[in-house]
Amino acid sequence: MGNAGRLTPRAHLDPVEVGGVTVRHATLHNADYVASLGVRVGDRVFIRRAGDVIPQVTGVAKAAEGEPPPDWSDRVPAELLGEKKEARPGVFWRWREKFEMPDRCPACDSKAFQEGKYWSCRNPKCLPQLIGRTLILSGGGAFEIDGIGEKQIAQLIAIRPRTCSTSIEIRGRRRGSSHSTAGARRASRTSSHRSPRSDP
Ligand SMILES: [Zn+2]
Q: What is the pTM of this model?
């Protein structure tokens, strides 16, 4: 799931070391790419990792055959399971199963839209999209908030701050110092009367 809602198929791999980094996932780019590889669940695959680029599956080394390993269903990563331990929409895990793009967003379950070889979720409240966009906004070149990551953003979204000053107060408290909390409160009071453009 990208920040703009694009759904990108991803392969979950048995952990493998590539260039000193343990790789557990590799991108499959889009539905057409998956079809061109002819890759199925359980296949042994070639992967390529260059620099910081997301590792990608480049081909099938050995197609899965025969029966799945006895513990196959227990090896489905927890992140791919829903509340009742069922596979989430868009998750393919059965031995030799073929991949198909899901017709619903795996994250928020709203309808997925297809444009050419790309599928996307258009729900503006879809959680991974919100987190991704907030990460960009809080990073360098934008608000430059130190120490904020996916986890903190998910927590903020869960408590639904309605205004900018709410967010600032939370930040002050998190630092745990009375000075910074007071400072943050002052900042929140003034910020509600001033537009950001009037700041020096
Ligand atoms: Zn969604």
A: 0.67
